[in-house]
Automatic annotation (TrEMBL):
Residues 11-96 form the Myb/SANT-like domain. It comes from the Eukaryota. This is Myb/SANT-like domain-containing protein. It comes from Buddleja alternifolia. InterPro entries: Myb/SANT-like_dom (IPR024752). It holds the Pfam family Myb_DNA-bind_3. The lineage of its organism: Eukaryota, Viridiplantae, Streptophyta, Embryophyta, Tracheophyta.
Length: 99
């Protein structure tokens, strides 16, 4: 669970907010395609987090991004215009636990 466990990897409220700011900076750029992120961007995020707060690996940043992406995707399914899709949400949650 590298990158998800807050206590073990320093994902404090400040770190989470800073990471969200980093995500906003690259919104719509070609370095993020679907649920994958360019390695150079991951390294940049890791370096900036380390410079500001310290203690972040590229792996922990990748895992945090993956987790946020899954949560965002599940949220979009739940709140879609066509209503609730609990079967799809359940399948998304099950598949994310297998990773």
């Amino acid at each position: 669970m590298d990158g998800i466990n807050q206590a073990a990897h320093g994902w404090t409220v400040e770190a989470k907010n800073f990471f969200i700011d980093l995500l906003h900076e690259v919104r719509g750029c070609n370095d993020i395609r679907g649920n994958s992120v360019d390695n150079n961007l991951l390294e940049s995020w890791s370096n900036r987090l380390n410079h500001k707060l310290g203690g972040f690996t590229i792996s922990s940043v990748q895992n945090r991004f993956d987790m946020l992406y899954r949560w965002f995707h599940i949220f979009n399914v739940i709140t879609s215009d066509s209503g609730f899709h609990w079967d799809r949400v359940e399948n998304l949650i099950k598949s994310s636990k297998k990773k």
